[in-house]
What we know:
Blueprint: E1 25-29, E2 42-46, H1 47-56, H2 59-64, H3 69-74, H4 76-85
Helix pairs in contact: 1-4
Amino acid sequence: xxxxxxxxxxxxxxxxxxxxxxxxxxxxxxxxxxxxxxxxxxxxxxxxxxxxxxxxxxxxxxxxxxxxxxxxxxxxxxxxxxxxxxxxxxxxxxxxxxxxxxxxxx
Length: 106
């Protein structure tokens, strides 16, 4: 598939690359449903970007701190991920290894 952007494809709210047909994608609730976000705003993401968000932060952190696309992109781990994924084709997908890194149950 092509890595070129065209006006026909939606843009991922995290990495800002186009979401080309056939690429795994999903809607992300900016405030998790279990934290009061049911019926709230959602954004379209590549599935790999969505997986990385949930591997990075807990539901409580997503609701409290990382609840806008701008805030998500400012997260140090997600900022590094966005720089890495920007070098991949728009249809790139791989499994997200492991769970939340650096996350400790309190």
